[in-house]
């Protein structure tokens, strides 16, 4: 056993101490009386003997026998809670008494002291009960625990704290690590989840812990139970998953902040092999309801050692609500604080204002530099330096901002932190005020949050460098993640992307571009969702590097994200949620990176547990057993992409089976697997995250089909099926010589595979890969013509020989694989290219009809008709017919758009560039959709019912879901979105890019006539 470095100056040399050096006669008298009441003389003697032995072997201080006797008596006289003696024998007590004597020695008789005595598996920390000593001791405890963090999955951590009830005001903390009985955490029994030492607790204690663990199972946020004992003590139990793990110091500060009269008598922590942690606090001076209300912030407590906000919280300068608000507004400011407009930027912006792409790059550079200067750590320092101002801004948020309070705060900021001398601070605090003004709804004041969510009025986006102000922006702040959700119209849908980082550097890069990526994806989704009622949305959550991905389930974070959004969607059912939104909002979420598999079903079922009426349609991508239509099983996304590929072949007179093809995205993915199964071109190259395969003769089709049907990754390929000039290079491979003599590591080749000679083919179908894998800087590698640059191609300044093109045809299945300017460059070079927003819309179409079915049905109908009893292997007759009709609708939508865009390209509109024509179609459809939405066209009942009848799948109509029933059961806002979107999209497809007001008049005249005729025929 050895002593840890103490915060007080250490005793040097050898000295003799007597009790009078440490304490007073009164304290000794009290101690002697307490000892006589609680300890036998033999117990006291055993402790004194053991302490003497320990001091003689370990201490630099020589203690007289009298000093040891009196010191032990004083320690025993602290009258610790009865459970102290129950759980600690004479040898343990001797260790603790020894620590106390050493603490006194190091304090040199001062009333303030703190001391740690540590071993590998246990530690004793003891201190005077002052704010300074308590803080120092808890920091030392946290350091001891963090130093053993790697052992926590296999060893149970137990922390027991006791406070003196007589004599000096002293706190003692006992920390122990014991092996788990079953480290796997998979067992359900208390004995299996704990250590052998834990199971020696009393039966009553074990039952209390069993209750807490039972409540934690399946929970996505902390569980709290508070009760009052007969002596007036409030017992607060807090159960946490380790993903929410905080520190004893943070919880101590939380409880002490309830009111000035709070006294914490003792506190315990026990950890379990399933990742659960249970804290117990025995508190005087607080009622159970007060304690539970305070603990509602526990999931969001700061636990970032060394962070300014954490330190401000731990020393009591900020309370729990203020520090959560501080993290929230700092996140907001990081993305939305408006950079100052200096003269250099203004001059440069004027110089490039005619080139939109270059101007946007300049703005992006300016914003990135501003983020580097105003990193969140820098923000916290400015807050600390201006704490009074920060607290005034928080008070404005808490009471509800007004135009008058906003003006007053901005005036104070401009006075105290003028832009001329403090530009960063001025921008920061003004962004805090913008935050307050912009919050339209929040669960910040709700008890028991899984995460904090804010729904903003996004008008502030208009002052920043974005092409369009969204309909709504949500920001979510979790203990282990940050998140956003952006949507461009009231009825909108898109996936939720979970962003993971291999290390801190990757995390910081993703953090910097997170909102920009979220916005771009939602904007692209808006342009893509041209055929369906939902506009575009997207969600992102960036997981902190503090989160142990190997040990804990990421799904918990996803459900915390969803739960915080549900708080606002269910504001009328959720006490504590503040909202000024005029109507209830409904979000539709889909799967995306790292949120597929069972995530959508889990979110829907969680919404059901919260009594959300529309829980069946909150998410798409659910399993067939929960009413979802799996895109991969029916090839929804690939069906749309293939329709564009086949359209090219049809127009160009090509024979599919005679063409060569390269594709990214391997046989495991939805798009990649179905591209293999549904197409007949000769695949000469393919890659996924596991490696790159190439065969100039075409990779064996039977082998590719085997991989695709089994959804294997590419590293499962049978290399014996490749020709002598073919190869498969795993991503993990070291430097390897390929058949042609060139050498690459696996990582090197994967990064550039689509640019190499091994992938030259007639057609390229990206089915996976990172956004912007081809940019203006790299696109020239697709043109084997010396001296050609991406800029030359983009500007149309070079004539490209068709023989020099790497690919004749590109149909972009993967989202954003090629940047916008690179697409223009390729089309200028003569490539026939259809972008993602046109080709890759089968999945969103399928998901939309999945939602529509759910909205048209009540819960019983949905369970009976749309939920397959054994998943997709046993669909109901209705389900199978409905899914097939959706496939047909996907095919038709793709065919209609291909024909329309191709026709306008052949007419030479927008230089014949399909990328620009497709964008123009999407923008025109959005404009007309918004125009029609603002009109009163939907009040024409005949027209409204006719458009709805045309849109509704016949499988629904033929199974009792008449237009009358649909109007009764589905939300009117959603049905109106169908009406408005169908008029907009079908008009543009029929009239083309040259459509004008008269064209629209003609279209509507014809549509109304059709509606009247259908009504006469009784069709709806």
Total of DSSP H or I helical runs spanning 4+ residues: 39
Helix content: 40-55%
Main-sheet strand order equals 1-4-5-7-6-10-11-9-8
Secondary-structure-derived class: alpha+beta
By CATH, the superfamily of the domain at 634-839 comes out as NAD(P)-binding Rossmann-like Domain
How is the biggest beta sheet arranged?
9 strands, antiparallel
Poorly predicted tracts of residues: 1-31
CATH class of the domain at 634-839: Alpha Beta
Q: What percent strand?
A: 5-15%
Mean pLDDT: 89
Give a description of the structure.
With 1020 residues, the protein is of the alpha+beta class. Among the domains are: 443-622, Rossmann fold, CATH 3.40.50.10860; 634-839, Rossmann fold (3-Layer(aba) Sandwich), CATH 3.40.50.720; 883-1016, no CATH class. 47% of the residues lie in helices and 15% in strands. The protein has a nine-stranded antiparallel beta sheet, sandwiched between helices. An eight-stranded mixed beta sheet has the order 18-12-13-14-15-17-16-19, with helices on both faces. A seven-stranded mixed beta sheet has the order 23-22-21-20-26-27-28, with helices on both faces. A hairpin with a 6-residue loop joins strand 6 (155-163) and strand 7 (170-179). Helix 24 packs across helix 25 and helix 35 packs across helix 38 (972-991). 48% of the residues are buried.
